[in-house]
Amino acid sequence: MSRICPAGHNPKAHETHCNDCALNPICLPMAVSDADLHRLENIIERGRPLQRGDHVFRSGDRFDSIFAVRSGALKTYRLTPEGDEQIMGFHLPGEMFGLGGLAGHVQPNAAVALETSAVCEVPFERMEGLALEIPSLQHHLFHIMGRQISEDEQLLMLLSKRSAEERIAALLLSLSARFQRRNLSATRFRLPMSRGDIGNFLGLVVETVSRVFTRLQAQGVIDVQGKDVHIMQPAALSAISGTQVGT
Predict the structure, then answer these.
(1) Torsion angle in degrees (nearest 10) through CA of 215, 219, 220, 224
(2) 4 Cβ contact list (under 8 Å, min separation 6)
(3) CB atoms within 10 A of CB 104
(4) What is the CATH number of domain 11-156?
(5) Could you read off the pLDDT of 106-153 as tens digits, one per residue?
(6) Which residues pair with 127 in a beta bridge?
């Protein structure tokens, strides 16, 4: 049974067909036929909306599905041997998560909603079987896995940067590129995560995160009001990061 669709819940109540979803160009392979799209829709499970703090899965859960964010935002994290939370990534609409369980058949991380969110669950065995019959879907799966590897490499590069400014600038540019991919503004967006989550992800204390935001704002590079960010000088932010980040 789906983890995001509790017993007694009618999944049709929250169903949005792939054809009607604004994230269709991001989630689905190009040039998929209507017949193949219908077959794909038949295996996708859509549960009730998640509230902030609701888990999609936890570390150690059996891997049997991959997931796509339909709305809202989630984070994946794992617990250190000391029991502390280490954030592994943030996931925005149109992005897949849960692929980490492919290697060991269990989820190494947990996934939790940062705000009210909706998720599509795709049983992996059924998706794998369908991909053998639909070449464009198989290619799309490889593309998703390749992007995951690229994001992991970029995370290592991000955490190897010496200054807090570089790390935060790179994260803001990454978020900017991901919002732009959804045809949203690349320079004005709302952060779904807290300052504490940003610090945890980047290996910084929350006070440092706040100081860097204040410093970048004083320099006129960004304007920050609560969680609302306006990148006023994208080129300057890119120069601070040391690289043009896009995930």
Answers:
(1) 0
(2) 45, 46, 47, 48, 50, 56, 67, 119, 121
(3) 9
(4) 2.60.120.10
(5) 999 999 999 999 999 989 898 888 888 888 777 777 877 787 778 777
(6) none
* pLDDT band at residue 6 under the 50/70/90 scheme: very low
Nearest alpha-carbon partner for 40 in 23, 19, 25, 54: 19
Span 168-196, average pLDDT = 94
101-112 pLDDT, tens per residue? 888 899 999 999
3-class state of residue 222 by DSSP: strand
27: helix, strand or coil: helix
Residue of 35, 37, 56 whose CA lies nearest to 113: 56
What is the DSSP annotation of 64-82? -EEEEEEES-EEEEEE-TT
Spacing of C-alpha 221 from chain mean position? 25
| CATH level 2 (architecture), domain 162-241 | Orthogonal Bundle (1.10)
Q: Where in the chain is the domain with CATH 1.10.10.10?
A: 162-241
Residue 129, Cβ neighbours under 10 Å: how many? 11
Outline which parts of the chain fall under CATH 2.60.120.10: 11-156
